[in-house]
Amino acid sequence: MTSAVNLCGLILAAGESSRMGSDKAQLPWPPPPCGTTPLPGQTLLSAAILALEPFTRLVVVVAGNNAHDVGITAGACGAYMVRNPNPERGQFSSLQVGLREVLSRGCDSAMITPVDCPPLSAASLERLCDSFQSADAQGVWAVVPENNSKHGHPLLVSREMIAHFLDAPISSNAREVLHAHADRVAYISVPDSLEKSGLNTPEDYRARAPGTPPPSL
């Protein structure tokens, strides 16, 4: 299993989860089958931490107003938490807070994912890490997973791309920064589907429950 010495896992979990109606970081994962009561156990956040851990030196979680609960989960999983003091400024502000923490902990690259993107399989993560380790010699600063023309997370970035994220205005977003340096970004095919990589609503969440039939056309 590949592990980059100075690669830090970074999970963005500071959002208000307004469309979901409850903190997405604490949702049971995988979702319980429809009509059943979820059992205590793994959450979306703990699943993300445990997925990234084998491939990274350490994992940092960015929290917002949910810092108390996120801190408990992060600590139980051996991860570190940093709080975004102004989460209302949006996800890019959390990314910048998290990347500063990554650098302060002695890491020079990051594997970044929002907490509402369920973790990819170990096979996909290993493929991304293998590609990222050889990327520097090719002048690549970022590696992005791709499947069937869909892009997803995690995003792996070098110190050079981290610097551009940190230099960007707070009103920017990660996609704009990546597009500004498109010649430094590599898209890597992974076996996992990225069709529904983000969970924004209760319907999105329930659709990922085991045994849920696909929506009718």
Task: Summarize the SSE layout with pairings.
Blueprint: E1 7-12, H1 44-52, E2 58-63, H2 67-76, E3 80-83, H3 91-104, E4 109-114, H4 122-133, E5 142-147, E6 150-151, E7 155-157, H5 159-167, H6 174-180, E8 185-189, H7 202-206
Parallel strand pairs: 1-2, 1-4, 2-3, 5-8
Antiparallel strand pairs: 4-7, 5-6, 5-7
Could you describe the 3D structure shown?
The chain has 217 residues and is of the alpha/beta class. It has one domain (7-206): Spore Coat Polysaccharide Biosynthesis Protein SpsA, Chain A, CATH 3.90.550.10. It has helices at residues 44-52, 67-76, 91-104, 122-133, 159-167, 174-180, 202-206; strands at 7-12, 58-63, 80-83, 109-114, 142-147, 150-151, 155-157, 185-189. Strands 1, 2, 3, 4, 5, 6, 7 and 8 form an eight-stranded mixed β-sheet that branches. The protein is globular and about 45 Å long. The termini are far apart. Mean pLDDT is 89; it is low at 213-217.
CATH topology: Spore Coat Polysaccharide Biosynthesis Protein SpsA, Chain A
- The share of residues in helices is 25-40%
CATH class label: Alpha Beta
What Rg is obtained from the alpha carbons, in whole angstroms? 17 Å
Order of helices and strands: EHEHEHEHEEEHHEH
Give the CATH H-level superfamily.
Spore Coat Polysaccharide Biosynthesis Protein SpsA, Chain A
| Global structural class | alpha/beta
Beginning-to-end CA distance, first to last residue: 40 Å
Number of helices: 7
CATH architecture designation:
Alpha-Beta Complex
How much strand? 15-25%
Global mean pLDDT: 89
Major sheet: 8 strands, mixed
Shape: globular
Q: Give start-end ranges of low-pLDDT stretches.
A: 213-217
Beta strands, count = 8
Number of domains: 1
